[in-house]
Amino acid sequence: MRFSKKTALALTAVALFASGCGKTPKDRLQGRWLGESIENVPEPHLAKAMGWVKGTAFEFTGSKVTVTIPAESPRTGSFRVTEANGDRVLLSFLRDEGGRDEAELQFVGEGQLRWKIGDGREIVLVKSVQN
After folding, report:
1. Rounded to an integer, what distance in angstroms lies between the CA atom of residue 95 and that of residue 109?
2. How far is C-alpha 63 from the chain's CA centre?
3. pTM (two decimals)
4. Could you read off the pLDDT of 23-41 as tens digits, one per residue?
5. Which of 3, 25, 66, 73 lies at a CB distance of 3.0 to 4.6 Å from 59, suitable for a disulfide?
Protein backbone atom coordinates (compact mmCIF):
# COMPACT_ATOMS: atom_id res chain seq x y z
CA MET A 1 0.00 0.00 0.00
CA ARG A 2 1.42 3.36 -0.99
CA PHE A 3 0.68 6.73 0.51
CA SER A 4 0.86 10.04 -1.26
CA LYS A 5 3.21 12.66 0.17
CA LYS A 6 0.23 14.64 1.49
CA THR A 7 -1.18 11.58 3.27
CA ALA A 8 2.21 10.71 4.76
CA LEU A 9 2.68 14.29 6.00
CA ALA A 10 -0.81 14.37 7.46
CA LEU A 11 -0.24 11.06 9.30
CA THR A 12 3.09 12.31 10.61
CA ALA A 13 1.51 15.55 11.83
CA VAL A 14 -1.29 13.65 13.60
CA ALA A 15 1.23 11.31 15.26
CA LEU A 16 3.38 14.22 16.45
CA PHE A 17 0.37 16.12 17.73
CA ALA A 18 -0.99 13.09 19.57
CA SER A 19 2.34 12.32 21.22
CA GLY A 20 3.04 15.93 22.24
CA CYS A 21 -0.34 17.28 23.24
CA GLY A 22 -0.45 15.75 26.71
CA LYS A 23 0.69 18.06 29.48
CA THR A 24 3.11 16.80 32.09
CA PRO A 25 1.88 16.66 35.70
CA LYS A 26 4.12 19.66 36.45
CA ASP A 27 2.43 21.61 33.63
CA ARG A 28 -1.03 20.66 34.87
CA LEU A 29 -0.22 21.92 38.38
CA GLN A 30 0.76 25.42 37.26
CA GLY A 31 -1.42 28.18 38.67
CA ARG A 32 -3.32 28.83 41.89
CA TRP A 33 -5.43 26.12 43.53
CA LEU A 34 -7.93 27.10 46.23
CA GLY A 35 -9.45 24.89 48.92
CA GLU A 36 -13.11 24.16 48.25
CA SER A 37 -14.22 21.25 50.45
CA ILE A 38 -13.13 18.32 52.56
CA GLU A 39 -14.41 14.76 52.57
CA ASN A 40 -14.78 12.16 55.32
CA VAL A 41 -14.83 14.51 58.31
CA PRO A 42 -17.25 13.76 61.17
CA GLU A 43 -20.24 16.13 61.21
CA PRO A 44 -19.34 17.79 64.55
CA HIS A 45 -15.96 18.87 63.08
CA LEU A 46 -17.12 19.73 59.57
CA ALA A 47 -17.68 23.49 60.05
CA LYS A 48 -14.24 24.02 61.60
CA ALA A 49 -12.57 21.84 58.94
CA MET A 50 -14.34 23.74 56.15
CA GLY A 51 -13.08 27.05 57.55
CA TRP A 52 -9.55 25.67 57.49
CA VAL A 53 -9.95 24.30 53.95
CA LYS A 54 -11.30 27.60 52.58
CA GLY A 55 -8.08 29.31 53.71
CA THR A 56 -5.82 26.71 52.07
CA ALA A 57 -4.11 27.35 48.73
CA PHE A 58 -1.30 26.03 46.55
CA GLU A 59 0.32 28.26 43.96
CA PHE A 60 2.65 26.60 41.46
CA THR A 61 4.93 28.78 39.31
CA GLY A 62 7.57 26.92 37.34
CA SER A 63 9.39 24.73 39.88
CA LYS A 64 8.33 26.88 42.85
CA VAL A 65 5.30 26.45 45.07
CA THR A 66 3.75 28.57 47.80
CA VAL A 67 1.54 26.69 50.25
CA THR A 68 -0.89 28.73 52.32
CA ILE A 69 -2.41 27.08 55.37
CA PRO A 70 -4.59 29.04 57.85
CA ALA A 71 -2.89 30.17 61.08
CA GLU A 72 0.56 29.64 59.52
CA SER A 73 2.86 31.82 57.45
CA PRO A 74 2.81 30.88 53.76
CA ARG A 75 5.66 28.52 52.89
CA THR A 76 7.56 28.86 49.64
CA GLY A 77 9.99 26.40 48.17
CA SER A 78 10.63 24.21 45.19
CA PHE A 79 8.76 21.08 44.28
CA ARG A 80 9.22 18.07 42.10
CA VAL A 81 7.00 15.27 40.93
CA THR A 82 8.46 12.12 42.48
CA GLU A 83 5.91 9.74 40.99
CA ALA A 84 3.12 10.01 38.42
CA ASN A 85 0.61 7.29 37.62
CA GLY A 86 -2.25 8.46 35.42
CA ASP A 87 -3.98 11.32 37.25
CA ARG A 88 -2.28 10.48 40.58
CA VAL A 89 0.94 12.32 41.48
CA LEU A 90 3.28 12.32 44.44
CA LEU A 91 5.05 15.60 45.11
CA SER A 92 8.07 16.46 47.18
CA PHE A 93 8.11 20.02 48.53
CA LEU A 94 11.53 21.39 49.49
CA ARG A 95 11.19 24.40 51.78
CA ASP A 96 13.50 27.37 51.26
CA GLU A 97 14.34 27.39 54.99
CA GLY A 98 14.98 23.64 54.97
CA GLY A 99 12.78 20.64 55.42
CA ARG A 100 10.76 18.53 53.05
CA ASP A 101 7.10 17.62 52.83
CA GLU A 102 5.33 15.14 50.59
CA ALA A 103 1.82 15.16 49.24
CA GLU A 104 -0.35 12.81 47.21
CA LEU A 105 -2.62 14.58 44.75
CA GLN A 106 -5.06 13.38 42.13
CA PHE A 107 -6.27 15.41 39.17
CA VAL A 108 -9.98 15.36 38.48
CA GLY A 109 -10.28 16.87 35.03
CA GLU A 110 -8.36 20.07 34.38
CA GLY A 111 -9.90 22.15 37.15
CA GLN A 112 -9.86 20.06 40.32
CA LEU A 113 -7.27 18.42 42.58
CA ARG A 114 -7.84 16.04 45.46
CA TRP A 115 -5.19 16.22 48.19
CA LYS A 116 -5.11 13.02 50.23
CA ILE A 117 -4.32 14.06 53.82
CA GLY A 118 -4.70 10.69 55.55
CA ASP A 119 -7.35 8.67 57.38
CA GLY A 120 -9.43 8.55 54.18
CA ARG A 121 -9.77 12.34 54.16
CA GLU A 122 -9.32 14.41 51.02
CA ILE A 123 -9.25 18.14 50.46
CA VAL A 124 -10.76 19.23 47.17
CA LEU A 125 -8.98 22.18 45.53
CA VAL A 126 -10.19 24.03 42.46
CA LYS A 127 -8.06 25.90 39.97
CA SER A 128 -8.45 29.65 40.21
CA VAL A 129 -9.50 31.35 37.01
CA GLN A 130 -7.60 34.60 36.72
CA ASN A 131 -8.98 37.39 34.54
Report:
1. 28
2. 13
3. 0.79
4. 899 999 999 999 999 999 9
5. 66
